[in-house]
Amino acid sequence: MTAPHLVTAPRRHQNEETTMVEIETRTLETAGAKIWYDVRGDLAGARAGDPALFLVGSPMDASGFATLASHFTDRTVVTYDPRGAGRSARTDGAAETVPEEHADDLRRVIEALGVGAVDMFASSGGAVNALALVSRHPDLVRTLVAHEPPAVPVLPDSEAVLAVCADIHATYLRDGMGPAMAKFIAMAGRKGPFPDDWADEPAPDPAAFGLPTEDDGSRDDPLLGQNMRGCTGYRPDFEALRAASTRIVVAAGKESEGELCARAAAEVAAGLGSEPAIFPSDHGGFMGGEYGQHGAPAEFAQTLRTVLHEG
């Protein structure tokens, strides 16, 4: 691994309250990827006060956390692009990735910050990767809030759901982004367990979701191509997580009840001997228009702040 280096001049971000925050962009070389990450605020402050707050998604990159980060201008906030997403190009030529690889990237970023243990809010696939990180390196994370991790193997209907994930991946390779993403949206929003004959149901129409119906030949979508099977197939190491020094809070959105990721969050929490913390809105509740998604970011941020301070 090479040392991290500054790749852009510090820039300023202005949040809703007109607070100006410096954003410094850095990169580091990891095994098989070049990782880009952003630091908002002063790392020296993270050494002296509250831990740095690391906001983690996957395959969503740093741009999806712009609104949430703007509500934490009193803390040093770190965001990053997972390998194969956003600016973080893969250098190993691999077609798929697994949570253990992402966890190692997270470890390297935290160590490069040089501020000790961080607080971490991780959502969706990022929550899966964060659980993999904490099971291996609990000393790097003080508090982890794992929001709606799609850890399918913990579900009672895991076999059926994993078959759906495999079908989505195969659809992407065969037919392209539109048909595969339509199936993914239908899967993510479905309430309740999946039946064994789910694949026999009519495939959703991509046009109904505003998706392209023609295949453009590209196969570089990080969700459908890289993470669809590796992320959802990850089973958390509950023994290691229960023994970890990290305080782990599993969270789910109030409006997500019954959906796959919320159901998985409840099962992960149960595996840790706890109940999920209920956050406002849904799976993207922290968003304020990123990717066209509007949650309840102010309320979400307040809930996150409260949960972090409870530790």
UniProtKB/TrEMBL annotation:
One of its GO terms (molecular function) is hydrolase activity. GO terms for cellular component: membrane. The keyword Transmembrane does not apply. It holds the Pfam family Abhydrolase_1. Residues 59-153 form the AB hydrolase-1 domain. Keywords: Hydrolase. This is Abhydrolase.
